[in-house]
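Researcher: I'd like a structural prediction for the single chain below. Treat it as a standalone chain; there are no partners to consider.
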Amino acid sequence: MLKDLFFKLNKKVNDKKEPGVFESNESIITKCPNCKKILYSKELYKRLNVCSNCDHHLMITSTERMDALLDKDSGTALFEGITSVNPLDFPNYESKIENDKIKTGLNEAVIVHEGTIDGSPAVIAIMDPRFRMGSMGSAVGEKLARAFNHATEKRMPVVVFTASGGARMQEGIISLMQMAKVSVAVERHNNAGLLYIAYMTNPTTGGVSASFASVGDINLAEKGALIGFAGRRVIEETIKEKLPDDFQTAEFLLKHGQLDEVVDRRNMRDYLSRILMMHSEVK
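Model: Treating it as a single chain, here is the predicted structure.
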């Protein structure tokens, strides 16, 4: 009974939650995993799941983030019919995909919308770590490549929120090929003189961090996000040195020139709005 107070109850997959509206079937309070403070879930949701005590950024779903970003009734979902198959006949892969679909209400680990942010048009892609840890399978790569191609044809900027464990092991080399496929689509978009904003969230690792997540015209990250290719232990064993405590955090990368800015989630809409507006005026 007491445990239910600290964790959100399972929600019905088909229920559509309005932005900023707290559901009655959620737990009353949530415990911050960073500072351990007890927070009212209703107020936490209004702050986009950012702790009021320590500013720790708790997990937010792709649909919640999309709702918080886009102007009301401006979003159009793209490529929703694309989903994973089992090209390598990996055991139990289909059942795991189906379970994730039921659990998240998504068809894949990334959603793509065309819409406006404070009136500025953009194509927005948001990865969701609840679906196979946001891993990059063939369907994820296809949706992202099509997002860039669609934006190139319509001469629109692209914003990609990354959150991924990297390649999807059940698809082997096919998963790794998505790094090149998406990067080619990014380059076509760039050659057309269009803006790409890469926005890294927790976690952005593996092949995703090594490819399209790191090649934006503007590279942003969310506060405290884990960003890196290989794990800390692997790196330490390879170089035989102890790494700094803040290694592979957004703040560490900003300090070493690999990011343009670290942004509080509560400011992401205003921050992106200003960038998109300036880009529109330059054009």
